[in-house]
Design brief:
The structure holds two protein chains of two kinds. By secondary structure, chain A is mainly alpha-helical. Chain A has two domains: 32 residues; 217 residues, MetI-like (MetI-like fold), CATH 1.10.3720. Chain A is built from twelve helices and no strands. The longest helix of chain A has 39 residues. Chain B has two domains: 179 residues, Rossmann fold (3-Layer(aba) Sandwich); 67 residues, no CATH class. Chain B has eight helices and ten strands. In chain B, strands 5-4-1-2-10-9-3-8-7-6 form a ten-stranded mixed sheet, with helices on both faces. In chain B, helix 6 links the parallel strand 7 and strand 8. Classes of the chains: A mainly alpha, B alpha/beta. At the A-B interface, helix 8 and helix 9 of A face strand 6 and helix 3 of B. The complex binds adenosine-5'-triphosphate and magnesium ion (MG). Adenosine-5'-triphosphate binds next to strand 2 and helix 1 of chain B.
Chain lengths: 268, 264
């Protein structure tokens, strides 16, 4: 019990449970209009309900359809961004001139909140899945480019010399040294980018989705004053977001940087 | 034996020539190194020992003079040389055996031959059982031995070592010195060994090139004709040590005088 209070591996669950209890009590004691602020118990019931068969105009497994669509947009967008941005970042890191010319532009794009791109993208592409995917790409490409370039530049000169003296060509240096040495940065960049991508896909769906998607669900529920569905959406966004960042990348990190004993570039 | 392997003729090295931060690291070095010779480069800190080693490695270019390897001017790095850095610079994402096999993979050697060669080297450096360990889990001395094995794996003609034992504790160092003596006795590779330590230099080398303070020249070359294995208590060792230390002290005090003169 003392360990739980000071913080052990069960503390996160206890903390969330406690938060739910406080929320429940606050709603009930204050007598606030449940239409505006539903108690968590009602939200949970609704969540389970939305996972099951539909009723009337509501299709079966409604929540899973929303989640599926969101994950689809996320994965396509993130995958495309990862592929292109890693390449751009590596090239930037390897070539001084490319770095000198691209870095100012990327630095500027980095500080623009991703949501500010959304109206422009909608103007160009209209509403729909493609638009959401592009929003995900703009949201996740810059951290990857930036960290990949920084990673290449952090490779010790002598590590490259060690490879050159073993007879490695430029190409071999890229594949046998730069990629490995840059891996901690690439992983940190992709982790950061996936977090950004998750925020981006929800934001993108709020504005640009017309059928399914957790972001769309939250925004759509507003029209029906359906605050329960909105809170279901928020909880789902939080749960999946944490899972992606912690669990997925925890898995990758345990298999790479932690095994190698090298620190991840956290200060990006 | 007997052929000149590496020959430096009036080699000068300036860093950032023409720029305000120009450094004349090496003023004029003329030095011949014979095939199979173990040569220590000894000298005060900052006198350009690493710079000279990196020029032989082909990573840096002389600004004046010529530096030849097998009679040809050195033009870039290549697999006929193996290098060991003071900071080891192993590949942290690869296990020990992969690190050692690096040059063999680059050369496209078959997997069976790689395995054979790695097993042989693992034996030589006494790291049996650590083949699948990541470098991070090794001690400094073990890492240094892996670095030496990595440099030897593809059988270069020349071994370049930059203060490889600088960061090791006394016991590990003693062990590494006897290991390296043994390795040199079996492989007869021409070796350039940069060090601060007079003791290391005498224990290991056939020849010691004493650098003057920056901007450096070769102050003196000592031929160490003592039989192996050498001990710090041998008469011959003590004689050489005294002679070299005197020469070094002279160098250091000359430098200080020079500084006082220019300051005064
Ligand atoms: N890349 C570089 N750019 C500019 N100056 C350099 C560079 N590398 C070395 N120098 C300078 O050249 C001089 C010789 O350096 P070098 O590292 O070769 O000396 P060293 O004899 O190896 O010293 P130490 O024993 O401390 O390792 C020093 O004054 C150093 O500051
Ligand atoms: Mg040095």
């Amino acid at each position: 019990m003392a360990g739980l209070v000071r913080g052990n591996r069960y503390t996160p669950f206890a903390a969330i449970l406690l938060f739910g209890i406080v929320w429940e009590i606050a709603v009930r004691v204050s007598g606030i209009n449940a239409l505006l602020m539903p108690p968590p118990s009602a939200v949970l019931v609704r969540l389970v309900d939305m996972l099951g068969p539909g009723r009337g105009a509501t299709p079966d497994f409604l929540l899973l359809r929303h989640i599926g669509m969101t994950l689809l947009a996320l994965l396509i967008g993130f995958f495309l961004a990862a592929l292109v941005s890693s390449a751009v970042g590596l090239i930037m890191g390897m070539n001084r001139a490319v770095y000198a010319w691209l870095n100012p532009i990327i630095s500027m794009f980095m500080v623009i909140p991703n949501i500010a791109f959304v109206p422009v993208i909608i103007l160009w592409m209209g509403l729909g899945l493609e638009t959401v995917i592009v929003v995900v790409i703009t949201g996740s490409c810059f951290p990857i480019i930036y960290t990949a370039a920084a990673g290449v530049q952090s490779v010790p000169q002598r590590m490259i010399w060690a490879a050159q003296t073993a007879g490695a060509s430029r190409r071999q240096i890229l594949t046998t040294v730069l990629l490995g040495a840059t891996m901690p940065y690439l992983i940190a960049g992709h982790k950061l980018a996936l977090g950004r991508a998750w925020r981006a896909v929800i934001a993108g769906e709020i504005f640009a989705s017309t059928t399914y998607g957790v972001g769309f669900m939250i925004f759509d529920a507003r029209t029906f004053l359906d605050s329960e569905a909105m809170f279901v959406g928020l909880i789902v966004v939080g749960l999946i977001g944490v899972t992606l960042e912690r669990v997925l990348f925890g898995f990758v990190e345990r298999r790479t940087v932690e095994k190698w004993g090298v620190s991840t570039a956290k200060d990006v | 034996m007997g052929n000149v392997k590496i020959s430096a003729e009036k080699v000068e090295k300036r860093y950032n020539p023409g720029a305000p931060n120009e450094v004349l690291a090496i003023e004029n070095i003329t030095l011949d190194i014979q095939d199979g010779e173990f040569v220590a480069l000894l000298g005060p800190s900052g006198c350009g020992k690493s710079t000279f080693l990196f020029m032989v490695g082909g990573f840096e270019k002389p600004t004046e003079g010529t530096l030849r390897l097998n009679g040809q001017p050195i033009d870039g790095p290549g697999a006929n040389r193996g290098i060991v850095f003071q900071e080891y610079v192993l590949f942290p994402w690869q296990v020990v055996s992969k690190n050692i096999a690096y040059g063999l993979r680059i050369a496209g050697v078959s997997q069976a031959e790689q395995d054979r060669r790695v097993a042989e080297l693992i034996n030589m450096i006494g790291l049996q059982g650590f083949e699948s360990a990541y470098p991070e889990s090794l001690s400094g001395g073990m890492k240094q031995r892996v670095a030496i094995a990595r440099a030897l794996a593809y059988d270069p003609e020349i071994l370049l070592m930059d203060e490889p034992f600088g960061a090791l504790d006394a016991q590990t160092r003693a062990r590494m010195i006897s290991d390296l003596t043994r390795i040199h006795a079996t492989t007869h590779k021409t070796t350039l060994f940069v060090t601060h330590s007079v003791e290391e230099a005498i224990l290991l080398s056939d020849k010691i090139a004493l650098f003057s303070a920056r901007p450096s020249r070769i102050k003196r070359v000592f031929e160490i004709d003592l039989p192996h294995p050498r001990r710090v208590t041998d008469d011959g060792f003590v004689t050489f040590e005294r002679e070299i230390l005197e020469s070094l002290e002279q160098e250091v005090s000359d430098t200080l005088d020079g500084r006082l003169d220019s300051a005064g």
